């Protein structure tokens, strides 16, 4: 779906339970569609986008997952692997960017927006913010990455982690919330040998 707002942090309306038409109008405005016709166009593409979102999660091969996520507006570089059942933000997929050589294992959630209930507006911000996953990072299985986070080049997010802050390049982080565990050195050795990444091949059919 084409989103017309610039890819940078933007405050959003808080969530309130409203009738479906009002909800769609609000969502359309958040994506930069301010007219009635714009809202209808946006609503149509939201339905298409939902199909792509489901297809990308259930698709059996990494190549089709990447292809479908790109159709949703996710920016994806070369030689990227995406595992099964990976949810890249349902509402603002175009705020996710994934650089070359990144591997995202299955069952991961990458979120770019947070819209708390109106009732909580004194306690939490409501916003959308870009998530960037830099070159050659590895996101292991079952993690959650929150809005606005950048995962640095060559960094590793260990299985089951919840990432609330930026991760430095070539760092291993783990846990909930994710904490720095150690600096990764093998990546540099690998590069200095002129090694190639596994992701340059076709990869396994199931990057779970
Ligand atoms: C990243 C990973 C490989 C690191 O595993 P590892 O080599 O055992 O890590 P280390 O030995 O360097 O562990 C260092 C510390 O971090 C902790 N740690 C490692 N992985 C952790 C995790 N997922 N969550 C919390 N803590 C973790 C270890 O317990 C250890 O703590 P200690 O020093 O207090 O004993 C592993 O956590 C992981 O995520 N594996 C990927 C599994 C996966 O996604 N498979 C499918 C796709 S390929």
Quick summary:
This protein is an alpha/beta fold and 208 residues long. It has four helices and 17 strands.
* Shape type: globular
Amino- and carboxy-terminal Cα gap: 27 Å
| Mean pLDDT rating | 90
Order of helices and strands: EHHHEEEEEEEEEEEEEEEEH
Number of helices: 4
What number of domains? Answer: 1
Task: Describe the fold and architecture.
The protein is an alpha/beta fold and 208 residues long. The chain has a single domain (16-189), classed as Hexapeptide repeat proteins (UDP N-Acetylglucosamine Acyltransferase, domain 1), CATH 2.160.10.10. Helix content is 25%, strand content 20%. A hairpin with a 4-residue loop joins β16 (171-174) and β17. The longest helix is centred in the N-terminal third of the chain and has 23 residues, at 36-58. Bound molecules: coenzyme A.
Question: Topology, please?
Answer:
Elements: E1 10-11, H1 20-30, H2 36-58, H3 62-72, E2 75-76, E3 81-82, E4 87-88, E5 96-98, E6 103-104, E7 109-110, E8 113-114, E9 127-128, E10 131-133, E11 138-139, E12 144-145, E13 150-151, E14 156-157, E15 162-163, E16 171-174, E17 179-183, H4 186-192
Parallel strand pairs: 2-5, 3-6, 4-7, 5-10, 6-11, 7-12, 10-13, 11-14, 12-15, 14-16
Antiparallel strand pairs: 1-9, 8-9, 16-17
This protein binds coenzyme A.
């Amino acid at each position: 779906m084409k989103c017309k707002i610039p890819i940078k942090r933007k405050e959003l309306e808080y969530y309130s339970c409203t009738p479906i038409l009002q909800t769609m109008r609000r969502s359309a405005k958040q994506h930069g569609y301010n007219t009635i016709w714009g809202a209808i166009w946006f609503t149509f593409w939201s339905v298409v986008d939902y199909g792509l979102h489901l297809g990308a999660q259930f698709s059996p091969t990494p190549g089709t997952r990447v292809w479908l996520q790109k159709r949703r507006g996710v920016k994806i570089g070369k030689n990227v692997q995406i595992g099964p059942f990976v949810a890249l933000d349902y509402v603002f997929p175009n705020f996710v960017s994934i650089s070359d050589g990144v591997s995202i294992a299955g069952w991961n959630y990458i979120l770019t927006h947070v819209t708390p209930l109106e009732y909580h507006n004194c306690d939490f911000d409501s916003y959308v913010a870009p998530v960037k996953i830099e070159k050659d990072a590895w996101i292991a299985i079952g993690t959650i990455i929150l809005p606005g986070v950048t995962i640095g080049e060559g960094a590793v997010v260990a299985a089951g982690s919840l990432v609330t802050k930026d991760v430095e390049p070539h760092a291993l982080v783990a846990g909930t919330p994710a904490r720095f565990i150690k600096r990764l050195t093998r990546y540099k050795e690998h590069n200095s040998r002129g090694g190639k990444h596994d992701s340059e091949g076709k990869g396994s059919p199931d990057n779970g």
